[in-house]
Amino acid sequence: MEEGKETKGKLTTEPKIERTSEEERDRLSELPDFVLLHIMNFIYTKDALRTCILSKRWKDLWKHLTTLSFYQSSLFNERRVVNFNKFVSQVLSCRDGSISLINVRLDIFESIGSQLLNRIMKYAVLHNVQQLTMYIPFYYGKISTYLDPIIFSCQSLTYLELHNISCWPPLELPKSLQLPALKTLRLSRVLFTATDNVCAEPFTTCNLLNTLVLNDCFLHNDAKILFISNSNLSSLKLNNLKIRDTFQHKVVLSTPNLSSLTVCIFGASSLSIQPLSSTCNLSCLEEGTIDIATDISHPVLIGWLQVFTNVKILTLSYETLKLILKDLSNLATMGSQPLCFVRLESLKFVTNRFRVISDEEVNKAVEYLLQNSPLIRVLLSKKLYHGSLLNYLGPVLAGLANHNRSQIGPSLEWDHNHQHHKGGL
C-alpha cells in the first residue's frame, strides 16, 4: 500500500521514490586500484588515509601510496605538534614497505624532532625515493645536529628541493653531494664549505644535474670560491648569493653546456656580492638575465656582463640599467673594459609604469653595451605591467633604433601584456 498523507480532510497518496541499483552503485570504488591510488597521490597523506573508513575496499588502499606528503600547520600548538609526529610515525610503520616511493614532501612550519626527521630521510632512501621536497625550519646550522646526511648520498634521487625557512643560521651542507641520478636541485639558505683547499665544489659529482637554483646561499669563512662545475648543467639561477666576511669570495662557473643563466641580487650589502667569472666561454648560452636591486662596484658589474658575452637573448632589469648609467656618469669608466656580445640577437630592458627611463638614458646605455659587438640584428623590448606606458615607449624605442640603424637593423619589437607590437623603421 502506498504511503499517504491527509490534506484538508482528504487522503492523498504520493509515489514512493525507489533508487534503482544503477543509481546506488559506488562508481568511485569500482575504479581500479591504480586509478584510485593515482588520485590519492595528489592529496596530503592525512586526507588519503581518511579514506580507509569508507569501506573494506578502501581500508588498506592508502598503504600502497607512492607519494607521502606531510603538512604541519604554522599555528603553533604543542598538542598539534605531538599529534603530527605520531601520525607521521604511524604512516611509516603501517605503509607497505615493499613498494618504492616516487615523491616525498614535507611542509613543516614548526619544529620537528631530528629523530623523526632522520627516520623519514632513511625511510625515503631505503624505498628508492625519486623526488624530495622539504620546507623546514632548521634552527641548528650543522647537518650532523639536525639532518642525517644519508639523503645527500641517495642513489635514486632525481629531484631535490631543500628550503631552510628559518632566518638564521643557514644549514651547512656536506662538502660534496653524492647524488648520481640527480637532475634538478633547488636550495635555499644553505651554507657551502670548502674541501681540502679554499674552494667549495658541492656539485661536481652530480653528473646528471641539469637545473640548479640557489636562493640566499652562503659561503663559509673557510671557503673563498664557490666553484660550480658540471658539464651537464643547462639552467642556472643564482639569487642573492651571500658571504660572511670579506669581499675576497667569488663564484666561478665551469659549465660548458649552460643555456640559461639568471643572476639576481635584492637587498644585499654591496660587500656581500661576489664577483662572477667562468673558466669557459659559455658558447651554448641562449638566455641570460641580470637583475640587481642594490649598489655594486663597476668592476664587479663589468665582470658579470663579461660572463654573458656569448648570450643570444640578454634581459636587464630597470635597476641594472640604472647602475650602468651611474657608472657612465663617470667618464673615466666609460671606455674601460669594453664589452663584446658576439652572438647577441635580443636585448631587453624590463621595467614597469612606476619606473620610467628616458630615451636619452636608454640610448646611452645601449651605445655603451653594444659599442664593440658585431651585431646583425638586435630586438630591443620593454615588458610592461600596465598599458599607460605603451604610447611613451613606442617613440622612445623607435628613436633609439633610428639613431643606431647601422647596428640595430631593420626591425623593432617590444612586449605589452604578452602581445607583440612590431613597427618597421
TrEMBL record:
Region annotation (Disordered) ranges: 1-24
PANTHER family: CYCLIN-LIKE F-BOX, F-BOX_RNI_FBD-LIKE DOMAIN PROTEIN
Domain (F-box) ranges: 25-74
The protein's name: F-box/FBD/LRR-repeat protein isoform A
Organism per entry: Glycine soja (Wild soybean)
Entry-linked Pfam families: F-box, LRR_At5g56370
